[in-house]
């Protein structure tokens, strides 16, 4: 008997139950079921993309003996590609077209600019770097989610 085959439906059912629970909680905050589902999946895809970033950085720097700057470049490009595919195909149930990839990159670039603006303003106000980081980690992903929902994948 293949235990993997038996376990897969149970895992899928657990994931669906967890997603339904998250949708219910976000519904209490006023989000529609569709928006809540997209947001939950967006966060999960972001976590996978972050893991890919770290893995690529490790591979380039420690595995291949490359420079950190090259590691950061390749990690960013590959993680952004993973994020685009995951969000297009799973979070927003869309096709991954070149046009949508361009919009995805544009929204993420705007998120980077927002990140820099927040950091600059808060640093000038004397805010500790850790609080700046926490602020950016909350505001920028929400900005990116809204941008992708309203622009990149709006007509999906």
Description:
By secondary structure, the protein is an all-alpha fold. It has a domain at 97-156. The chain has helices at residues 3-28, 33-63, 68-91, 98-124, 129-152. Helix 1 (3-28) crosses helix 2 (33-63) and helix 2 packs antiparallel against helix 3 (68-91). The longest helix is centred in the first third of the chain and has 31 residues, at 33-63.
Residue runs with pLDDT of under 50 for 5 or more positions: none
The count of helical stretches stands at 5
Distance between the termini: 41 Å
Rg of Cα set: 18 Å
Strand pairing plus helix content: what structural class? mainly alpha
Strand content: under 5%
Helix content: over 70%
Overall residue-averaged pLDDT value: 89
Main β-sheet, in a few words?
A: none
From the spread of the alpha carbons, the general shape counts as globular
Classify the oligomer.
Answer: single chain
Find the count of extended strands (DSSP E, 2+ residues). Answer: 0
What are the secondary-structure elements, in order, as H or E?
Answer: HHHHH
Can you tag this structure with a few keywords?
85% helix; 156 residues; mainly alpha
């Amino acid at each position: 008997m293949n235990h993997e085959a038996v376990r897969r439906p149970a895992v899928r059912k657990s994931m669906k139950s967890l997603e339904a629970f998250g949708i219910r909680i976000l519904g209490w905050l006023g989000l529609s079921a569709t928006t809540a589902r997209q947001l939950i999946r967006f966060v999960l895809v972001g976590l996978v993309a972050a893991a890919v970033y770290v893995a690529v950085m490790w591979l380039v720097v420690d595995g291949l003996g490359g420079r950190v700057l090259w590691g950061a470049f390749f990690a960013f490009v590959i993680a952004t590609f993973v994020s685009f595919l995951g969000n297009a195909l799973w979070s927003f149930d869309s096709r991954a077209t070149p046009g949508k990839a361009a919009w995805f990159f544009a929204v993420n670039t705007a998120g980077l600019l927002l990140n820099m603006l927040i950091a600059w303003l808060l640093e000038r106000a004397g805010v500790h770097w850790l609080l700046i980081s926490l602020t950016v980690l909350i505001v920028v992903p929400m900005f990116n989610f809204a941008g992708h929902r309203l622009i990149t994948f709006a007509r999906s």
